[in-house]
């Protein structure tokens, strides 16, 4: 099939969705909504889920004291709640990093 030949509308739409990254935006929005539900409004306001890679959710944290607190005390509970709330995301671990680093 030459580049100018007509193609199926479904194929063209699939290519457009992939090219524009619409599927990723939807996934990012879902991840952010799940994180807000699990972390609660106060913690969610100071953190942001970045990405899931190989089952590890990377979360950005606004300040160093909060980073220490979450890493030392809240991480396991947050992970358990994430697994219960969104098992389809297949999150196995959490990692936290200071925002802007």
Q: Could you name the key traits of this structure?
A:
alpha+beta, single chain, 4 helices, 101 residues, 3-stranded mixed sheet, elongated
How would you describe what is shown here?
A three-stranded mixed β-sheet has the order 1-2-3. The chain is an alpha+beta fold and 101 residues long. It contains four helices and three strands. The mean pLDDT is 88. It is elongated.
What is the number of helices?
Answer: 4
Q: What composes the largest sheet?
A: 3 strands, mixed
Distance from first to last alpha carbon: 47 Å
What is the beta-strand fraction?
Answer: 15-25%
Cα-atom radius of gyration? 18 Å
What is the 3D form? Answer: elongated
- Enumerate the strands of the largest sheet in spatial order, edge to edge or round the barrel: 1-2-3
Number of DSSP strand runs: 3
Name the helix and strand elements from N-terminus to C-terminus, one letter apiece: HHHEEHE
Question: What percentage of residues falls in helices of 4 or more residues?
Answer: 55-70%
Mean pLDDT rating: 88
- Class based on secondary structure composition and strand pairing: alpha+beta
Return residue spans where pLDDT drops below 50 for at least 5 consecutive residues.
none
